[in-house]
Amino acid sequence: MIKQAAVILDRDGVINFDSDSYVKSLDEFKLMPKSVQAIVDLHKAGWPVFIVTNQSGIERGYYDEATLAQMHAELYKQVQALGGDIQAIYYCPHHPKNECACRKPKPGLFQQLALEYEIDLSQSYYVGDKITDVEVALSIDAQPILVTTGKGSKFIEHELVVKQAIPIYTELHEFTQHLLSKSFTPKPYI
Questions:
Q1: Catalytic residue at 18?
Q2: Which CATH superfamily does the domain covering 7-181 fall into?
Q3: Is the pLDDT of residue 185 over 60?
Q4: Full-prediction pTM beyond 0.85?
């Protein structure tokens, strides 16, 4: 089977509004304008869409995995209502002090995703709003994309962003429109 390119997204600050005190409930899970439509547009154009997110609020005791599942069920529901889909959502529930292999900027969840779904990470995009998102994308040889929503505007002048000439967009929807305006189409599964 030939591996396929994908668009992989961070969650907080890219798809939904982030909070310094964590998004702890379904009521606090507020989607950004046009983020759902961006996911739908990617799916309809043939791009598999994945989400990889750090969710240390679970181990910190701010919310539990059932609450996280409710948030993700709501996201799936809204995307599917418009004819789109998300292939899978991967998350790290661990506290940073654990130094686990799955917490970004470590590549564990991306390697798992690539293996389980036959994804070519080197032909894929990772859209995030933090420097750790840029770091992990570079470590897995994916194309990092920085959006200025969430915490992204703080990293525009970061040495790594400048040195690597990381593409910067105001939001996920803007990146999606740019990507879909190109003539490149992802290779289908064979």
A1: no
A2: HAD superfamily/HAD-like (3.40.50.1000)
A3: no
A4: yes
